[in-house]
Amino acid sequence: MNKKNVKDIDVDGKKVLVRCDFNVPQDENGNITDNRRIVAALPTINYLLEHNAKVILCSHLGRPKGEVNKKYSLKPVADELSKLLEKEVKLASDVVGESAKNLTNNMQNGEIVLLENVRFEPGEEKNDEELSKALAALAEVYVNDAFGTAHRAHSSTTGVASFLPAVSGFLIEKELEFLGSSLDNPVRPFVAILGGAKVSDKIGVIEKLLDKVDTLIIGGGMAFTFLKSQGHKIGKSICEEDKLDLARELIEKANTKGVKLLLPIDTHITTEYSNDYEDKWVESQDIPDGWEGLDIGPETIKMFEEALQGAKTVVWNGPLGVCEFDKFKTGTYEIAKVLGTLDATTIIGGGDSAAAIEKMGLSDKMTHISTGGGASLEFLEGKKLPGIEALQDK
Ligand code: AMP
């Protein structure tokens, strides 16, 4: 997967349309509560400014569903960007209308215009050709730096790339480098850790990883479907009954391929899905009726830790317990700490596991934390991401 990036194309004096992921969390007053996605876009924006480009930024924010809705305006993003860049960022009041055209028509080199929320346009999520052409007409070069939406074929992520020279920004380049090299050429031993609520969300990833890894560690809610498929008693733990056969097949496949597949051996259980009820630790194969497992236990943590020792590449997607509850975040936290001590390339798929690691303050101990939950899963499954496919090959 060798796609051109901003360095492979002449941007001097050119109008460059950059698709960013400015989908930031906000409080009820519209204040940005976490600006990391904006900060993550700065390397590409700064590179373009330093190389005399006229920078036109676009992004979605929330789900306005094709209608103009002030609640989802990018105004707070324009203000934050302006502060971070110490430079004026002009906000167009529309996406491809009069305001966007006026502001982008008369740009000087080094100037920045931010278009309004692309999802105010009904054509955006339909990958409408007219909208893609209208976006392309504003610029001379297209840069996609929004990995989090790269698995969606929308006008601003995919369609527009048909009408302009299209390359990636530094953020997407970094994602491809880390996620891609872990799959194509992993330094071994290669260990994958999968958790989260459901097996069904991760079937594609498990199948793909079974062809690649030396060890597959399974925790979180999805482990119970595997445990039950082996005849174990799982109480009222989360389980997908219609995936029991599949779980059994995946365990067999791991055996056939010589992949070490590890399931929890002890479990932290409680009587209700809550932080506030009676709890205890039991063997994972014998969870009593009326109890459910919400985290891995200390023996499992020890076993997973041992399996991680010496690993040279680790990919992790999905928390190992209900880490939203203080009582049941231990497994996720302890394994994250272990990852932080390894002399290995550690790659965290986005979404809940990335959020958990950030909340625990362990982000800077990881080699790479993906900015895309759904996108990183689809990438690891080996699916082609339309927002990346649309970019020019090197
Ligand atoms: P996913 O989006 O599939 O990665 O799932 C993340 C969710 O899985 C988190 O919200 C966790 O609370 C949940 N989860 C992890 N372990 C368990 C468990 N043992 N039982 C129920 N939910 C779990």
CATH superfamily caption of the largest domain: Phosphoglycerate kinase, N-terminal domain
> Helix coverage percent of residues?
25-40%
Level-2 CATH architecture of the largest domain: 3-Layer(aba) Sandwich
Arithmetic mean pLDDT: 95
Question: Roughly what fraction of the amino acids lie in strands?
Answer: 15-25%
> Which regions have little confidence, pLDDT < 50, spanning 5+ residues?
none
H/E series: EHEHEHEHEEHEHEHEHEEEEEHEHEHEHH
Strand order of the largest sheet: 3-4-2-1-5-6
Bound molecules: adenosine monophosphate
CATH topology of the largest domain: Rossmann fold
What does this structure look like?
The chain is an alpha/beta fold and 394 residues long. The chain folds into two domains: 6-173, 3-Layer(aba) Sandwich (Rossmann fold); 186-381, 3-Layer(aba) Sandwich (Rossmann fold). The chain is built from 13 helices and 17 strands. It has helices at 36-50, 75-85, 98-105, 129-137, 170-184, 203-210, 223-229, 244-257, 298-308, 330-341, 351-359, 373-380, 386-389; strands at residues 15-19, 54-58, 90-91, 112-114, 141-144, 166-168, 190-194, 215-218, 233-234, 260-262, 266-270, 279-283, 286-287, 292-296, 313-317, 345-348, 368-369. The strands form four sheets. Strands 3-4-2-1-5-6 form a six-stranded parallel β-sheet, sandwiched between helices. Strands 10-8-7-15-16-17 form a six-stranded parallel β-sheet, sandwiched between helices. It has a three-stranded antiparallel β-sheet with strand order 12-11-14. β3 (90-91), α3 (98-105) and β4 (112-114) form a beta-alpha-beta unit. α1 (36-50) crosses α2 and α9 packs parallel to α10. It is elongated. The model has no long low-confidence stretch (mean pLDDT 95). Adenosine monophosphate binds at residues 195-198, 201, 220-221, 238, 293-294, 318-319, 321-322, 324, 351-352.
